[in-house]
Design goal:
The complex is a heterodimer of chains A (110) and B (117).
Chain A (H helix, E strand, L loop, with lengths): L3 E3 L4 E4 L4 E7 L7 E6 L6 E5 L5 E3 L2 E6 L4 E6 L8 E8 L6 E3 L3 E6 L1
Parallel strand pairs in A: 2-11
Antiparallel strand pairs in A: 1-3, 3-8, 4-5, 4-9, 6-7, 7-8, 9-10, 9-11
Chain B lengths: L3 E4 L2 E4 L5 E7 L5 E8 L3 E8 L6 E2 L7 E6 L2 E6 L8 E8 L12 E2 L3 E5 L1
Parallel strand pairs in B: 2-11
Antiparallel strand pairs in B: 1-3, 3-8, 4-5, 4-9, 5-6, 7-8, 9-10, 9-11
């Protein structure tokens, strides 16, 4: 089983839609969770950290479900500029390091 | 100016050649990392360093070596490049944490696109 698994997509949605991504992880002891955004051929950039109580930043909401070992990202009122790959990141089981999921592709169309 | 820089940005080389990729940061972070990214596989950790005297192997260190010359510099070498090392390489940095059960966010350089023919 991979340490971090994501649905690769692509998710094709119209502008204004709400879209949600899930990510499952294997390290039940992880205390660090993040969502990164990566544009084509560019470096990943932090979108938001994910906290135990869930957190919101504008149109973006992140949730953590420890019992089921998954985190989610909800994007409301999608914009064309939200088109990107979204990477789920979790602290790994082996060694002191972060593990990146392969990413979920989002395409927002007008 | 960018906080994390990588040189070169693009490199085409031949099988068997020695290649060095360089990373510099002005963020003052102790921790530095090298990743490679291949389509469909996501980012995979090659090596990481938590301070100048610390070097650790990551998930895929075979065929690579690193040098942490200073807090701000971390270079990655391919001693004898092979075609399956063709990939996008990223350097990243992060602040250290006082509690090893937590991990701070990582900041990435712009990447080096390496092609081995």
């Amino acid at each position: 089983r991979k340490e971090v698994e994501q649905d690769p997509g692509p998710f094709n949605v119209p502008e204004g839609a709400t879209v949600a991504f899930n990510c499952t992880y294997s390290n039940s002891a992880s205390q660090s969770f993040f969502w990164y955004r990566q544009d084509c051929r560019k470096e990943p950039k932090l979108l938001m950290s994910v906290y135990s109580s869930g957190n919101e930043d504008g149109r973006f909401t992140a949730q953590l479900n420890r019992a089921s070992q998954y985190i989610s990202l909800l994007i409301r009122d999608s914009k064309l500029s939200d088109s990107a790959t979204y990477l789920c990141v979790v602290m790994g089981e082996y060694g002191n390091k972060l593990v990146f999921g392969a990413g979920t592709i989002l395409r927002v169309k007008s | 100016d960018a906080d994390v820089t990588q040189t070169p940005r693009n490199r085409i080389t031949k099988t068997g050649k020695r290649i060095m990729l360089e990373c510099s940061q002005t963020k003052g972070h102790d921790r530095m990392y090298w990743y490679r990214q291949d389509p469909g596989l996501g980012l995979r950790l090659i090596y990481y360093s938590f301070d100048v005297k610390d070097i650790n192997k990551g998930e895929i260190s075979d065929g690579y070596s690193v040098s942490r010359q200073a807090q701000a510099k971390f270079s990655l070498s391919l001693e004898s490049a092979i075609p399956n090392q063709t990939a996008l390489y990223f350097c990243a940095t992060s602040e250290k944490t006082m509690d090893s059960t937590y991990y701070n966010e990582q900041f990435f350089g712009p990447g080096t696109r390496l092609t081995v023919l």
